[in-house]
């Protein structure tokens, strides 16, 4: 049975760990509107991998990832320095460093491929990822780093939360926003480096941001968002791994990204508060309410201009329109019936309509709000 396959279990566990780690750290990147940092750091890690191999002639995962970590931290430091000491904006600095570091990494990989040494085979897998090469040792490294990162999140939860939402307020409370931000950046870079072997430098930015973006649609509370983001990341990792194992030569990393992208699209459409579908129906309902209020105001003005406030009026008088068709008359009747169900209007035996006392009070309160 496919689920009892040892390799599949190892890769699924590694992908799930990656989803949890990137989901938790990615939540803070999304909240801070620094999601593109993941793209820059992941691409900037490539020259670090190449240099680590050139210096050690070893393909051990921990050595290559250490090189990637140093390169990623260096690129982050350069980006922040450019923004701080020049007039270049954050996005421009990201694009500049991303292209320079990634281009340098490609040059180094090309040079390595021409070295008369068979040991360099497989380094190019870090570009698109090669989850099937994950070993038990790699999972243990991911697990240890994941525990460390999540423990730091728990310990510094209050600090990370305040700095992410309002750094000025955090500064006024006495927090060292620079140190907290630096620690958070290091943790985000570490989370990115962890996933390079699984999904590669090109797709890692999606793993960092997509689970958090999906989770953001379902809640306004950061703690719930972090938990949902980790859950979405883990689920996409496991499902993507299983789907890739069912089809021959289907890469695991891109499949994981496709699954999390589907989760994002579903969340964007169907999340109760922010979903586009529900938002569409809420807007339609709001439009109907506004139209009904306009009809009610017409009834109110007719009542104010008549000696008897309870006097009923014909549809053509309620909304005088020389071009009124049968269809528009039916729509107006539906709005009046809706007002009647709300107790704001009433119909007599001659199918004429009048405003109720509740309707009078509703409109008067509406005008008071408009004056305010």
Automatic annotation (TrEMBL):
Pfam hit, one: ABC-3
GO CC annotations on file: ATP-binding cassette (ABC) transporter complex
Compartments in which it is found: Cell membrane
Keyword Iron assigned: no
Record keywords, A-Z: Cell membrane, Membrane, Transmembrane, Transmembrane helix, Transport
Presence of the UniProt keyword Cell membrane in the record: yes
Record's bilayer topology term: Multi-pass membrane protein
Single biological process term from Gene Ontology: transmembrane transport
Coiled coil (UniProt feature): none
Segments crossing the lipid bilayer: 6-31, 63-86, 92-112, 141-160, 180-210, 222-243, 255-276
InterPro entries documented for this protein: ABC_BtuC-like (IPR037294), ABC_TroCD (IPR001626)
Family statement: Belongs to the ABC-3 integral membrane protein family.
Name listed for the protein in its UniProt record: Metal ABC transporter permease
Provenance organism: Tissierella pigra
